[in-house]
Design brief:
With 110 residues, the protein is mostly helical. It has three helices and no strands. The chain has a domain of 70 residues. 77% of the residues lie in helices and 0% in strands. The mean pLDDT is 93.
Length: 110
């Protein structure tokens, strides 16, 4: 790739990033009008509770099992708990990403 082509590609990518940031901010920020640490706490609590439920059940299944493996029903419940935790964790991580990228307006310091 020539130097001119590299510069052109770099300028194009910077322009795309700028447009994407504006689009995401325009759409996401109004959906989260009162973003604050306090408003994010319920999400973080939910993630922690789901993580605890998932681990607690995994330990329950492995306690005093002798040679028995978890049943299909028990594994289905464990899978559901894991998927629930992972989905909510992904939402929390996405919130962090949106804040980091400036997609969500944050309250200003007084």
């Amino acid at each position: 790739m020539t130097q001119d082509a590299t510069r052109s590609k770099s300028r194009f990518m910077m322009s795309m990033e700028h447009v994407l940031r504006e689009i995401n901010h325009e759409i996401i920020s109004p959906a989260m009008p009162d973003m604050s640490v306090e408003s994010a706490v319920p999400l973080m609590i939910t993630v922690a509770r789901l993580r605890a439920d998932y681990l607690k059940y995994a330990f329950k299944l492995s306690a005093s099992r002798d040679d028995h493996h978890p049943s299909a029903e028990e594994l289905a419940k464990l899978k559901h708990l894991r998927e629930s935790f992972q989905e909510m964790r992904a939402a929390a991580q996405e919130l962090e990403h949106c804040i980091d990228r400036g997609y969500i307006d944050l309250p200003t310091s007084k």
